[in-house]
Amino acid sequence: MSKGPGLFSEIGKKSKDLLTKDYISDQKFTVSTYSDTGVAITSTAVKNGGLSTGDLAAQYKYGNTLLDVKVDTASNITTTFTFTDIVPSTKTIASCKLPDYNSSKLEVQYFHQHGTLTTAVALNQSPAVDLSATIGTPTISFGAEAGYETTSGKFTKYTAGVSVSKPDSCAAIILGDKGDSIRASYVHHLDQLKKSAAVGEITRKFSINENTFTVGGSYAIDHLTVVKAKLNNHGKLGAVLQHELVPKSILTLSSEFDTKALDQTPRFGLALALKP
Predict the structure, then answer these.
(1) By C-alpha distance, which of 194, 199, 187 is closest to 163?
(2) Structural domain tally of the chain?
(3) Has residue 120 been placed in a domain?
(4) Which of 176, 197, 206, 266 has the most Cβ atoms closer than 10 angstroms to its Cβ?
(5) Max alpha carbon distance in the chain (Å)?
(6) What is the CATH number of the domain that holds 171?
(7) What digits encode the pLDDT tens for the residues 238-258?
(8) In the chain, where does DSSP find H-type helix?
């Protein structure tokens, strides 16, 4: 793939991941195994309140083809094929979900030295079409995306964004929700391994005249333990502790509560991921 600007979905992703990833409020247990033939099998069980769910996923890679199959407790089967370089500098992703085959989708990503282009089409009788593009370099990129519903002939979304990246920092501005919101974020990495970082994000919702400002970060206590925290101007405080029990096996503890309503019960989450 070309070393040009990333996909539009990557604009602002670093700050979003730092502020949302691993902040869980349920109990999750994941076990992964790998066979000599290249098949990876992952079993996941999730308990959220009194509701328990789970799924079984298998992944197989052969050459430039990647096959993912997932079965959940509701007997839904999701199959995804990913083909790399069928045409030079492209990635093709075809997904199908049974019995709800109307959710099937075909996506083609094209990578160029100075831009990327993504087209996704729903495979049903009234397909929706999503199109996104970026131009620029790995350092600075401009992008936009739009969704079009062929049945109604209306745009379901249109978004624009810009990203500026350096080896130790990344800033992004995204105009979304059909122009109703704007989000600006900045991430600064504090070490070469990028395990410790500080992040700030501000979102403005024009229709309700509301601003949300969030600060957070992560800090590597040692090479096995990382802590994360975030706080916004509405008083929502979250914290995460991750510890590598054995190589590739991670224990995650998460908590979130409202500092303006201390009488409410905090939310806690626990996740254990075991890998060979």
Answers:
(1) 187
(2) 1
(3) yes
(4) 197
(5) 59
(6) 2.40.160.10
(7) 999 999 999 989 999 999 999
(8) 13-20
